[in-house]
Sequence to fold (219 residues):
Amino acid sequence: MRGQRSIKKKSLQLQEVIAKMKTVLKKVPQAESLASLLGLEGNLVALYSDALPCLISSDVSPLLEFSGRNRRPPQDRFNCLLSFGYALVLKDVMNAILTVGLEPALGFYYQPRSQAAPLGLDLLEIFRVPLVDMSVMASVNRSQWHVEADFEVRGQQVWLTESGRRKFIDLYEQRKQETWKHPILGYSLTYRRLFELEVHLLEKEWSGEGGLFGKLIVR
Fold:
């Protein structure tokens, strides 16, 4: 919804996807089990992936377009950017978890299915869109990526080159310096500081002081 503000001609497909997402979101509070919640998330992820191409400018090179999420390893340039960004966020989230002193292996949504700590993956979800998805979409639409110099293609695998990694890290660090006003606490802080704050708020949530954690909503 935020991404379509810069689009002069509204996409009918995008409007339909947004309407479907709103319908699914209304079912989330009624989810009676983790399995049912996972099913709703799966529906939302599919709809979200359908919507992203509608936000890419028509001037963008076909080599930077998005046609669905893929990873381990990424198979196109857009997914390469997403994967690298999520890895950076996960690193910052894990540092915050360890600084506060919580056990990263004890999550509440993700299950221990990979080497990544479940609690780290839980907290990654809060920052995934504002720090990575929005930054990647903006940089692609601004033609900030060179399809050859910034990416290395190995068969069906696509990786960032050294110049591409440096460019992404610069964009990511700039994004972390931007501020966001917490709707409950009432003061503004950078995304960099928000990592540790959210872990502290989660600790309060588990200690009986509910209603503060996970309030980061993109307007």
